[in-house]
Amino acid sequence: MATDSSGPHGTATDGSSASGAGASTAGMPPARGAHSYGLMSVDWEERVRHDRLRDERLARISEMLAGSELGALLCFDMSNIRYITATHIGTWAADKLNRFCLLPRGEQPIMWDFGSAARHHQLYNPWLGDGRSRAGISTMRGAMSPHSGRAEDVARKIKVELEQRGLHKEPIGIDAIEPPVLFALQREGIEVVDGQQLMQEARVIKTRDEITLLNMACGMVDAAYEELYRALRPGFRENDCVALVNKVLYEMGSEFVEGVNAISGERCSPHPHVFTDRALRPGDPAYFDILHSYMGYRTCYYRTFAVASASRPLIDAYKRCRYYLDAAIALIRPGATTAEVVSVWPRAQEFGFPDEEAAFALQFGHGVGLSIWEKPIFSRLVSLEHPEEIREGMVFALETFWPASDGWSAARIEEQLVVTATGCEVITRFPAEDLIVAGKPYYTAGGSLPLGRDRESNRNTELDAGACEATPRAPALG
Fold first, then answer.
1. What pLDDT score was predicted for residue 7?
2. CATH class of 208-438
């Protein structure tokens, strides 16, 4: 397996120069940041190299496994399985914990899957090699009877492979597991320990191809936000927004739209994290989070809009939300820590929450890769006392929130970025420097209505004393 320590822009993380496998960097142009390619493969331009992507991911986790106390890794999490084996059968299987792979120390991985999928891997995944794609199924999250012996079958399969390699007496790291399978492994005398931390540490630094895929995934969301901006108008519902984003992304080639948060009006504060069928109204705030996957690589990407006009409280909230986000981004560089970054964010009590746990994920940061939430985590709940070092090649999202003084509206912004040798590069490019007002302007006899106005018309009407005196009085009632 080829290994490559290069960072996001062709610079090795040890400070040396790096390019393609075995290639010389002589005469190469300077790095230009994360690339934005077309979504197809072509023979006349090197874009994502999937063979290199597979090799470098497997090499990285294999090297980390060799340096650990573990004899093998047993993975049921589909993101970890994909990282190790480069196999995939559709996102419908993500929560089933049915398929599994074993990576023995110093050897190639073995994959167990639905029988038909295993046969497909044999035909179309030659990198698995002969005999390493096999049929094997767990308990389907307990749907199969405990008397069917599925848990015991999984445990026996694993024990046989470990015994053949003399690894059965060494600890085995597991990422996520059904309790019956865990108990069956223990009855077979296998020592089970936490393997998720090793997988997280392997995945925290992205290869050049991973960064390219993450950047391309963000570019697809740029396009979705453009269509959303054009569509936002009174009467358009939150679920209409979700449908539109799904349509745009799937037509562009998204593998999976994991979720679209669509939050509007009085639902904005507190943040409910789920969309409804609420219709947009003039003067509403509306914020969105678009989470999708392109070739497995995710986005987490918030933007806030005002519908037709923006109130002064919303404008002020947006400015403060943006300030906290920019203050955090300014601190991102190799060698900085998550504690330094979260120190510039407000305490929970400053925006209406009793403690950091109650405000968790509102001022937040998290790694993004084959999963939405990976290492490193940025939160005042954990980062101040347990800081993590920021390293070149990390990709993460930083997101901030601020409630408006009117008590119901709020702003939410998020940027996804790549840590470079000297700082970072933001790869979420839909404009967010200032609050965007969506929808057509309204015209009156005196011109267009201001875009900054309160949602209640009477608060925007200013009559001088003379105008009031000239206005006929309404007749008395009764």
1. 44
2. alpha beta
What's the pLDDT tens digit per position in 376-400?
999 999 999 999 999 999 999 999 9
CATH 3.90.230.10 domain extents, the chain: 208-438
- Residue corresponding to tokens 């077309």: 38
pLDDT in tens, 16-69: 333 333 333 334 344 567 888 988 889 999 999 999 999 999 999 999 999 999
Q: Does domain 50-203 have CATH number 3.40.350.10?
A: yes
Per DSSP, the three-state class of 65 is: helix
Cα(380)–Cα(387) distance, rounded to whole angstroms? 10
How far from 53 is each of 42, 74, 101, 109, 302, CA to CA, in Å? Answer: 17, 21, 19, 16, 28
For residue 99, what are its two tokens? 């398929």
Q: Is 464 exposed, middle or buried (0-12, 13-18, 19+ CB in 10 A)?
A: exposed
Cα–Cα distance for residue pair 84/224, rounded to 1 Å: 31
Closest to 413 measured CA to CA, from 394, 436, 389, 438: 436
Q: How far is CA 96 from the centre of its chain?
A: 21
**Which of 218, 261, 437 shows the shortest CA–CA distance to 362?**
261
- Per the listing, tokens 């679920």 go with 239
DSSP state of 375: E
